[in-house]
Design brief:
With 103 residues, the protein is mostly helical. It is 85% helix and 0% strand.
């Protein structure tokens, strides 16, 4: 807007113009206001239809992923322990079979 001298800024005429322009802006429908009303009215349906995540749902999935990752890491560590035990048992069975053949 054009600069207005300080002595005219608080004049009733300037206030009327300011109030009028804001009143007109509030009454004229805009695409943004129409979209806002639409999304406010249909928010839950849009999320369900498009399978969108809310922040709460995303945090829940992140926590579940972290728990699954911890469990997988535990299983891998147990797997290596079991493989070592299986190798040791296999070596003992082989030794026993060789010992039984000697008799």
């Amino acid at each position: 807007m054009y600069p207005v001298k300080p002595k005219y800024r608080d004049s009733p005429y300037m206030r009327d113009i300011y109030e009028f322009t804001h009143a007109v802006e509030r009454r004229i429908p805009t695409f943004t206001r129409t979209l806002d009303r639409y999304f406010d009215a249909h928010f839950e349906g849009i999320i369900a239809e498009w399978q969108l995540l809310t922040e709460h749902g995303l945090r829940d999935l992140e926590n579940r992923l972290e728990n699954v990752t911890v469990e997988i890491n535990k299983l891998y560590s147990e797997k290596s322990v079991l493989e070592k035990r299986a190798s040791a048992l296999e070596a003992e069975v082989t030794a026993l079979e060789k010992g039984g053949e000697a008799e």
